[in-house]
Design goal:
Strand 7 and strand 8 form a beta hairpin. The protein is built from no helices and 22 strands. The chain has 236 residues and is mainly β. The protein starts with a strand and ends with a strand. It folds into two domains: 124 residues, Sandwich (Jelly Rolls), CATH 2.60.120.10; 97 residues, Jelly Rolls (Sandwich). The strands form four sheets. It has a seven-stranded mixed beta sheet, with no helix packed on it.
Length: 236
Amino acid sequence: MKSKLIKSSERGAANHGWLNARHTFSFAGFYNPDQVHFGMLRVFNDDIVAGGMGFGTHPHDNMEIVTIPLRGTLEHKDSMGTHSTISVGEVQIMSAGTGITHSEFNHNKTEEINLLQIWVFPKLNNITPRYDQAFFLPEDRKNAIQTVVSPGREENTLWINQDAWFSLGSLDEGKSVAYNIKRNDNGVWLFVVEGSVEVNGIKLERRDSLGLSQTNEISIKADSNTEFVLIDVPMN
């Protein structure tokens, strides 16, 4: 088994006033040759956006982009004609494909929003751009792992153009759960949203990340009430 631990304090930091961003992987002005990507997982940003502020219209292509609000509501507009809001409990996915422009703003004018923005390299390039979002019941991940994104158009999940699975988990203190990696050449990236856990005996605190590869199963034990994001992604 190979492991890659990135502590919260080792992430890149960029505070633009309206945006306070933490970058797990090299992004924008942050570059660390040891933190460029994990297999096909390229970007994992933890963003806090001030009230009424956001990202103006900008382009993407050939990237799978997943957004998970942790606090607040995000307003999204894109060149496909989509105009929507995404709130806590929802997950958004956008296949940039041949090219798309979009904007993202904090829907609340006075309160901050906190969101995760995650980019995965696509399996097929130059597909038709698309957008989707869905709400996932929190009780379905209580002391369990809830899959929210998958490549096989599985029931009650969002589809991704990659052999990757995104899951959410919420464990009470002392509870454990096992996760079987979906494909032989995949690895797992786990990000602790809140709380603290042990993953295959490795301790992680709030906002720490751990990548594990060359293994078939991982064990997650909560040292306190914990919420996490788990990404099962090809390594090559």
